[in-house]
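User: Hi! I have a protein structure encoded as tokens and I'd like to know what sequence might fold into it. I'm fairly new to this, so please keep things simple.
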């Protein structure tokens, strides 16, 4: 069932959702969350299709927010809200409202979405493209317990990862991270089979694929070893090579579907490691609504620390402590200088302090 509303309000949309459910005899109590998709007209169809497929596992109310560009100054000063309400077979196992915002109302999408949220149900906001640099500070992101972005859709994915690390808030996640879940599981299982120490790692994949950087940062953070990033023609991630004290451990996926796991002393085995579609990725993210601490730790490791030696990484981690020591030393010297200056002013014949004498007195304190 599909209901079209032109120049409408949030109240009318909510009323249409209720009438649609009554018409097909479907209650709202079966829906477990509200999924808000913020996208443009070009990507709305693919995002909505993925959300509809994911709703088979997570029945939800899906709100698609599309900000339409106004062509004339008169249109920009006006406001209009058009909606397309879908229930029943048109909306998967939940219900859908496609909201098209024109003019000034596009700057206040949160005021349109807020009355349409399911009561007492979690809220997830997903930006398939054009995600804000700080999702938690976005008006729509502030309504959600979980905020899903995709750095793969950014023009400069690696730089986008650095920005995400600076603005990370518990509840943020990225589909570039979700894509490497099978890789992380397989690598962890491979290391469980050997009693060896990992010395170095190489992650191979496409140049502009943030999943490669995230996997490399996760390995570097967890293993505490240098991780080198190398390039290939893809698709996506193609190989991870770990040098251990027992020999190499290699997970190689050249065709994007079937991978080969090689461990020294054991026969090579084929493992299913097929690239997953967006529907599977968003369904995985909807399974957990608590903060992903593992993603946060990998993200904050920093892309710039990849390919550094172990000593250099350790020195980078100790740099703040050394800086704090130098600052404390400078403050102590300054205090001694002030005390000596005041004493010299009062006595008039005090010896003029030198930088070395000040430092010695500060150290003695």
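Assistant: Happy to help. Inverse folding works backwards from shape to sequence: for each of the 365 positions I chose a residue that suits the local structure. Here it is:
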């Amino acid at each position: 069932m599909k209901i079209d509303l032109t120049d409408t309000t949030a109240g009318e949309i909510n009323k249409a959702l209720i009438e649609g459910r009554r018409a097909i005899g479907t209650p709202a109590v079966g829906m477990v969350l509200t999924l808000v998709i913020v996208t443009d007209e070009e990507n709305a169809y693919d995002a909505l299709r993925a959300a509809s497929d994911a709703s088979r596992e997570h029945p939800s109310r899906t709100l698609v927010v599309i900000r339409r560009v106004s062509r004339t100054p008169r249109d920009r000063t006006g406001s209009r809200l058009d909606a397309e309400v879908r229930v029943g077979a048109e909306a998967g196992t939940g219900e859908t409202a496609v909201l098209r915002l024109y003019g000034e109302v596009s700057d206040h999408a949160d005021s349109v979405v807020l009355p349409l949220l399911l009561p007492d149900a979690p809220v997830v906001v997903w930006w398939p493209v054009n995600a804000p640099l700080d999702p938690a500070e976005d008006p729509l992101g502030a309504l959600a317990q979980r905020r899903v972005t995709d750095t793969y859709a950014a023009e400069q994915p690696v730089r986008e990862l650095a920005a995400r690390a600076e603005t990370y808030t518990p509840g943020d996640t990225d589909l570039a991270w979700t894509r490497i879940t099978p890789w992380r599981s397989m690598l962890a299982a491979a290391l469980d089979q050997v009693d060896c120490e990992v010395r170095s790692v190489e992650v191979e994949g496409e140049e502009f694929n943030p999943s490669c950087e995230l996997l490399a940062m996760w390995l570097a953070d967890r293993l505490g070893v240098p991780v080198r990033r190398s390039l290939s023609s893809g698709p996506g991630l193609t190989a991870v090579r770990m040098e251990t004290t027992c020999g190499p451990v290699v997970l190689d996926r050249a065709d994007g579907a079937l991978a080969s796991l090689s461990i020294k002393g054991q026969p090579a085995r084929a493992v299913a490691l097929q690239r997953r579609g967006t529907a599977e990725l968003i369904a995985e993210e909807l399974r957990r609504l608590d903060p992903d601490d593992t993603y946060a730790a990998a993200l904050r490791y920093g892309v710039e620390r990849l390919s550094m030696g172990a000593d250099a990484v350790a020195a980078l981690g100790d740099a703040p402590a050394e800086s704090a020591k130098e600052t404390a030393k400078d403050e102590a010297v300054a205090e001694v200088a002030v005390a000596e200056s005041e004493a010299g002013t009062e006595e008039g014949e005090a010896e003029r302090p030198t930088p070395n004498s000040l430092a010695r007195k500060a150290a003695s304190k």
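A useful reference point when you look it over: The CA atoms of residues 226 and 308 lie 6 Å apart. Feel free to ask if any position seems puzzling.
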